[in-house]
């Protein structure tokens, strides 16, 4: 069994634990698993991982989610979190087209509601 296969198995275990709440690591992990399954494994679950990543993206891409921040954290930390979220959301938005184009899908996600902060 390869290291990549071991990583994929462990990622699946973590996904089961964290699938109830959307997060940037969960979205990125699902998208990484989509690429792993499609390129290095059997590909049997790659479309499923892609659709799950898009659902997590959609859950994160709401104004309500952005405004539902803990107000007790420092302004610097809030800025850094929004900056990281901006990079992650815009990064997935820009790279996702390769997957949807390969499948012949219409782009399943909309532009991020968070502005570009870089």
Describe the structure.
By secondary structure, this protein is mainly α. The protein is built from five helices and no strands.
Keywords:
single chain; 118 residues; mainly alpha; 69% helix; 0% strand
Mean pLDDT: 83
Q: Give the DSSP E fraction (strand runs of 2 or more residues).
A: under 5%
- Radius of gyration equals 15 Å
Question: What oligomeric state best describes the polypeptide chains here?
Answer: single chain
Q: Number of DSSP strands?
A: 0
Structure annotation, total helices: 5
Order of helices and strands: HHHHH
Percent helix, as a range, is: 55-70%
Number of structural units classed as domains: 1
Query: What structural class should be given to the helix and strand makeup?
Result: mainly alpha
Biggest sheet character: none
Low-confidence runs (pLDDT<50, min 5 residues)? none
Distance between the termini: 41 Å
What best-fitting shape do the alpha-carbon axes yield? globular
């Amino acid at each position: 069994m390869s290291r990549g296969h071991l990583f994929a198995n462990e990622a699946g275990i973590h996904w089961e634990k964290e699938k109830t709440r959307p997060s940037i690591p969960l979205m990125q992990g699902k998208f990484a698993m989509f690429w792993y399954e499609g390129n290095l494994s059997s590909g049997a679950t790659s479309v499923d991982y892609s659709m799950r990543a898009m659902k997590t993206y959609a859950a994160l891409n709401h104004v309500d989610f952005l405004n539902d921040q803990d107000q007790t954290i420092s302004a610097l930390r809030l800025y850094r979190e929004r900056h990281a979220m901006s990079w992650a959301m815009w990064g997935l938005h820009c790279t996702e087209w390769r997957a949807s184009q390969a499948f012949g899908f219409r782009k399943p996600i909309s532009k991020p509601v968070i502005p570009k902060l870089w």
